[in-house]
User: What shape does this take?
Amino acid sequence: MDYSGILDGILGQVQKPARYVGGEVNIVRKPWDAGLLRFGIAFPDVYEVGMSHLGLQIIYGLLNEREDTLCERFFAPWTDMEGAMRRAGLPLLSLESAAPAGAFDILGFTLQYELGATNLINMLDLAGLPVFAAERGEGAPLVCVGGPCAVNPEPLAEIADFFYIGEGEVSLGRVIETYRETKGRPKRDVLRELAEIDGIYVPRFYDARYKENGEIERFAPNEPGVPEKIKRVYAEDLNAAYFPERPVVPIVEAVHDRVSLELFRGCIRGCRFCQAGYIYRPARERGAGLLLEQARAQLANTGHEEVSLLSLSTSDYTEFERLSASLLEFCAPRQVSLSLPSLRVDSFYMELLERLQATRKSSVTFAPEAGSQKLRDAINKGITESDILNGAKMAIESGVTRLKLYFMAGLPTETDEDLEEIAELARKLLSASPVRGISIGISAACFVPKPHTPFQWEAQASPAEFIRKHSLVKAKIRDRRVKYSYHDGKTAEVEGALARGDRRAGRAIVAAWRRGARFDGWNDMFNYEIWRAAFEENGLDIGFYAARERRAEEILPWAHIETGVSAAFLSRERERAYNRLLTPNCREKCAGCGIDNCVVKKAAFSGGQPGHPVLTRRRV
Assistant: This one.
């Protein structure tokens, strides 16, 4: 059926109709009836957010380069568009060919944030598909979920047909080939073949049994031959990994409307709260020469006017001086700006900042995460107060007039005195400033324990306790030049419950969606009462998942997912946190996290190969 007429008829009823029409520069259209495998890549948020995600662009380009595959995009319609679609009987359509999602072979969702789960379910419903995998028939698309949230797949285990654990460049080709080879066979047989692929988890082949106290008693395969543990897959050589030189250019201004250069994946630092720093190990870099070529190609093929450097810690990129100098030389005469997300504190980076300030004023962001030194040591941040003060002083001397500081409240071992030190640090920064007119913006997040981190066993503060903590800090800030903002503790509680939830929590997600939950990651859309009611409706205690400290011997819902970092290492890091002991970064000393084929270890402890020096400078 041709839905274009219905679509055209409702676009005038919604805000930002351009979100739903496609036709962008560098879009790929392939013949629908050419016998190609039809893969729908689905992002459970609005177009502007999804089109800012580099991973989506990578998968889109990677699959469309295959001669046997057609890949088209889906995004979550905003509430006005959803209402118009339901009234008109219009299903979820792809941007490339306005094809219904239900006509695809595989729908691949990338879930970047736990609170996107209700949007994922809503997109399935808009596609005319049953929410639960067991209720989708033989002719329905296979639903795959990937992205960082897939490292604890259990809350969506009854919804997804399979999960992709790791980086798409590695096993996605095998998924395509296996599906093509088995297409036409019963769905169970297709999934059984997919379960043989590295990084693929098929929940129907595993069962969980629970104790009376709610903990997991046993988690094991119910199908002979499937692996007991599913290992995350990752690209060992980023220089050889696919990168899109002709990314699709958003037709609506995106959140990040620019060229994104992925310098490296992973992180050498080991901040104990940071899930990304553990699940993307080891740190792997792209060469500066290759990155410069990719920047030139993307600028030529998109018309973007800004280049952004993407990584977990840009200042740890070993060829940063060479790359930034080359990019500035290339970008400046073309009126293309260079965006630096973070800085190390030394003269070179301040000199670079001064060169950037010549074209535009900007703020500089530091992320101390904690106000006191003892708490920074507990979380393994690895910076001192002197680093922060000196870095701020140099930034201000280079022309910066606004400092942004990121902190967290509710960290393990935290005391009220640690929180009060946030206000004291802001006071010291203002006192140390060599010029007037400086302002400081402090943003405080609520700490949420995440799977596969040293803090995965920790209790999470309640919403009421988060309010008390934020109020304590705010009361200590008396200078008008300092503005304090903080995240909502209720949102954090739901995020925590989904992050560490088990298979039963999926029923609460579906119940919240049925009660109207949509775009829960948006402050003005989140409804806490809906979520409380959804958990209670299913006989679940949200505090059991969010507030409860896990026992060391407890079977965790994500224990069958192996990221490469051992549980023993995470446990040791938790103990070091309570003793406020720093663990050196990966280039200084291998801490024995368990990662196989670690390129950082090979380079650093074989004398240091080009691009991987043994030591790195301190940063903020």
The CA atoms of residues 443 and 529 lie 25 Å apart. DSSP finds 21 helices and 19 strands in the chain.
